[in-house]
Write a structure and sequence with these properties.
This protein has 228 residues and is α+β, with helices and mostly antiparallel strands. It contains four helices and seven strands. Strand 4 and strand 5 form a beta hairpin. The protein starts with a helix and ends with a helix.
């Protein structure tokens, strides 16, 4: 509409007077362009991000779990202890007989030239076998090797459930009517984590805190594999 009015004005001027100058024409065109509405660009559609599919991790069969390479790592053991013989084996039968683990890792420990404890990690499939194996390990702690005195306590910070054993040098002895002989100190930690039953023993030691510290490390290490 405004464009029409401006053009009409130019024609009227042309009719009433001399022809419009070039400057008048350029001015009229400029005003006409200014009067045009500017076009607002339509908003562009932002594409939605595509969902990333996380690949599913295939669980290793329990019978194929072998922790022999990570059962003891540098810095795990208390001062003075070292690793000795290491055994790892599967059950020859699958499913195995009751109370037989599908996989066992047994790490012997040494102090100097003497055998001074062990770490045993058993993997079970059946929950009943897990429970019976744990109870047997705890009963072994309570009985001891020579009916010696010792303290057995439940512990709640390791595994699904756990038990510790502590025997000092002064509180232990061989039970015999013929002689009594001093027995070295001993500390043990036994715990269950899902499909695993772990037994830890340090002979010639009264450092239960170090045994628990190691138990916490191996517990954290095996949990992603034995829990399913």
């Amino acid at each position: 509409m405004k464009k029409f009015i401006l053009i009409a004005a130019i024609l009227m001027l042309a009719a009433c007077s001399s022809a419009p100058s070039e400057e008048d024409i350029q001015t009229a065109i400029a005003k006409t362009n200014e009067a045009r509405p500017t076009r607002t660009p339509s908003p562009t559609r932002t594409p939605s991000p595509t969902a990333t599919h996380t690949p599913t991790q295939t669980k290793i069969p329990l019978k194929d779990l072998d922790f022999s390479e990570i059962i003891v790592l540098p810095g795990d053991l208390p001062a003075g202890y070292s690793t000795a013989q290491l055994n790892s084996y599967q059950s020859k039968e699958y499913p195995p007989p009751p109370d037989v683990p599908v996989r066992r890792v047994y790490q012997q420990l040494a102090k100097g030239n003497d055998a001074s404890g062990y770490i045993q990690l058993d993997i079970y499939v059946d929950e009943d076998n897990i429970e019976s194996a744990y109870k047997l390990a705890v009963e072994k702690l309570k009985k001891g090797f020579f009916n010696e005195m010792g303290e057995v306590q439940a512990i709640g910070i390791v595994g699904d459930k756990g038990t510790t054993y502590f025997r000092s040098d002064s509180s232990a002895w061989y039970s015999s009517d013929v002689f009594k002989k001093g027995v070295i100190g001993r500390v043990n930690v036994v715990f269950v984590r899902c499909h695993a039953v772990v037994e830890i023993e340090f002979l010639d030691s009264e450092d239960l805190d170090s045994a628990i510290a190691y138990a916490l490390k191996i517990d954290e290490r095996i949990t992603p594999y034995v829990c399913r």
